[in-house]
Amino acid sequence: MNLQTAIVALLMSGVVTQATSASAVKEDSSPIGGLRKRNDGTRRLMTSACVLLEKKITMEGSQLEIEDVECLDLSTGYIASIKGPYSQSIIDEILTMFRSGMAISNESTLMQVDAFYDADGNLFLPNNDVTVSNTDNVPSRRKLAVNGIKTMLALRVKAADASTTSTVNQISDAWFGTDGDAVNFKSQTEACSYGKVEVQAGIFTSPSISNGVHTVNISENAIGVDDGVIRQAAVSQAEDDLGVSLSGEFDYVMVCVPPGTSGGWIAYAYINHWLSVYNNQWCNYVSGQMHEIGHNMGLAHSGESSAYDDQSGMMGYSYGNSNAPLMCFNAAKNWQLGWYDDRQRIISSGETWTGNVYGISDYGNTNTGDTVIVQIPDTSFDWYVSFNRKVGINSGTVEGGNQVLVHKRNKGVGYGESDLMAKLNAGGTYSSAPLPIKVNSIDLPTNSGFASITIGTATVTSTPTSGPSPTSSPSASPSASPNAVTDAPTASPTQAPVTNPPTTSPPTDTPTSAPVVAPTQAPVTNPPTKSPVALPTPSPVNPPTSSPQQEQCASGTYCCSQNFYTCVGWAGTTENECTSKLPSFNLHWICEPERNSCKANYLGCKSDPDGCCDGLTCVRKSQWYSQCNYVAPTPTATPPVALPTPSPVNPPTSSPQQEQCASGTYCCSQDFYNCANWGGKTENQCNSKPPSRNLHWICEPERNSCKAKYLGCKSDPDGCCDGLTCVRKSQWYSQCNYVAPTPTATRQ
111 and 170 share a domain? Predict the structure, then answer.
């Protein structure tokens, strides 16, 4: 339905009328892009339409999450609560319009003749005659693309009678991992998106902000006061402090409110917007962070028996734990986000398909043509089939681990709640979707586990697996029926989220004190150095009393670490104890760096490529994102000394690469597989482009003859296209990367 035309079908009670055009929003003095005006305590007539915002409030205890509608006053920048004798019926009507897609948060507008803003900044509607219009001409939506670089700022609030408990450094660490927090919003979002989203801590010159957190001092009291008062005061004060509009400077802003405000709320966010708000310590909990920013990204709740009790992903319950659970989003949300859109498959009515479905944790190790999400479209709903593999970035999924999950949601990829319809083990079937679904087998090898699935009515005569199929759930999965939350914790909440996490302890597949972020590399005795490897020296007469690494250690402290930054005491206090642990623990013996002196494993490094901790390398993942990674050193051999060759009588007419080109076609490329014609038609044109374009002059390979840049290569380490190297990223995953050649010195 065209959202610019009149919407009549839902106007059941006559409370809300729908404008026939988007002209209701006047382009008058908007604070968006300018400074927010403080409420002066006087009553003002509503002279232009306000922008409707859907608000999702997560509550503690046994209460369900509260839905509300507020309205952004473009003339002041204030988000106003809706009041008046008909306010609840109007709000209910607008919420229904949001759910049906007939209105869109941060896009649709509201106007009423005779409405006014009261002394407290609330929008007072004296009658039930309001007009809702739809427009995409809202300035604050300009930065709401999901992917790319996202600059974020957290506000630590100090009120007159209370302050946010966590320090600036603690909040920064919880959001951005700036002080070694192994699992934080940045690390998990970048891991789940495979670098399609790069989270950057906001920085500012005056006042100085270096780690994405700013403390605001407000004159208002917080204890017993509505959180909206604190939120508005904090945002206004921050804009006064910085001299900029927050929505114009940052992609997302998080307000960390002091304890003691009224109501049993945990956190809330505005849909399709830049603002989220957290009750004190909930500003530090990774599931709450991803849940609320998920709302900002346009994600709705994930339910099963109630609105948001699907615990297979982050849009269900939130958990009071700073580092757990380690999981991403469900298949319906992932389809909406588009993070795995090159591994999606659509099976329509009347079709039949049998194939392997891989978990999102193995996405990076899949190849072109593999499948991570299957969509089954229907008249009113879209259905999604996925394999919820419980490993790596998804190792903490609370429900449906190592099972095939079936979700459904309203058609489309806009805002819409999803429902978990089935959890299937090997041999399980589900017949209530538009096409029957059967799980032929579930294969859980060390790398790239998958579920063999048939969608449609075909009879499976053989199972396409790489090994014997399990006859029952794997040992790490529950033995109860597929429809039970078999791997959920014993203290799982039944309705609303609770302050304490539903889990009684973090996942115990690895030691509980070990970080559970994306896996690091297998340990080696000698970590790599950043400088070129020198020629071997003669063996010393007397063996050294300490390792070479220790002799060069500036801090004088050595320890066992998984991320090259934080020490893990449980792994031992000596090098032998550390390196004797199982390879799956990914431990390394390091010289402990000074705090904040370098970036840990898996942190972004695009803006500071030399800032990774010793032993790590800044590896380029995409044109937007680079990441500190451990790259296992390649054994070096003594280079052979070639005899000089006489200069050719006639100089070659083409480059050596072209002389060896099998296809005979040369082109400019970014991924060493596909030609980028915009890069130029000659080698000189290609090489003259800015380095940021990452262009290379290549011999165009035959189709399907090799793997392009950034594709997985663990199962075929020699299969990368010419010019690429299969680089080991973890024990589960290797990737085709371009490794710039190291300049070779003339041998003396």
Answer: no
pLDDT in tens, 473-528: 333 333 333 333 333 333 333 333 333 333 333 333 333 333 333 333 433 334 43
The pLDDT score that the predictor gives to residue 152 is 96
Question: What range does the domain containing 287 cover?
Answer: 148-249+273-298
Rounded to whole angstroms, the Cα distance separating 510 from 606 reads: 31
What are the distances in angstroms from CA 265 to CA 58, 231, 262, 269, 282?
A: 6, 14, 8, 12, 10
Q: Per the domain annotation, does 746 fall within a domain?
A: no
C-alpha 550/C-alpha 334 separation (Å) is: 45
Task: Render pLDDT for 726-747 as a digit per residue (tens, 0 to 9).
Answer: 887 765 667 888 888 765 444 4
Question: Is 157 found in the same domain as 113?
Answer: no
Q: How far apart are CA 497 and CA 493, in angstroms?
A: 7
**Is residue 347 one of the residues assigned to a domain?**
yes
Residues with Cβ within 8 Å of residue 263, at least 6 apart in sequence: 226, 227
Tokens for 460? 């499976």
Based on the fold, state whether residues 415 and 452 are members of the same structural domain.
yes
Mean pLDDT of the chain: 78
In this structure, the number of other CB atoms found within 10 A of the CB of residue 562 comes to: 27
Q: Which two tokens stand for residue 181?
A: 């927090």
pLDDT value at 553 more than 70:
yes
| Total domains present in the chain | 5
Residue 683 has pLDDT above 60, yes or no: yes
Structural domain ending residue among the three candidates 116, 141, 166 = 141
What is the helix (H) or strand (E) element at residue 45, kind and residue range? strand 44-45
Which tokens is 723 given? 């010019």
Residues 380 and 407 sit within 8 Å (Cβ to Cβ): no
Do residues 369 and 493 both lie within one domain?
A: yes
The answer as to whether 634 is a domain residue is no
- DSSP string over 285-324: -HHHHHHHHHHHTT---EESSSTT--TTSTTS---S-SS-
Q: Which two tokens stand for residue 576?
A: 């032998």
Q: Are 293 and 319 in a shared domain?
A: no
Quick check: 9 pLDDT over 70?
Answer: no
Residue matched to tokens 């006061």: 225
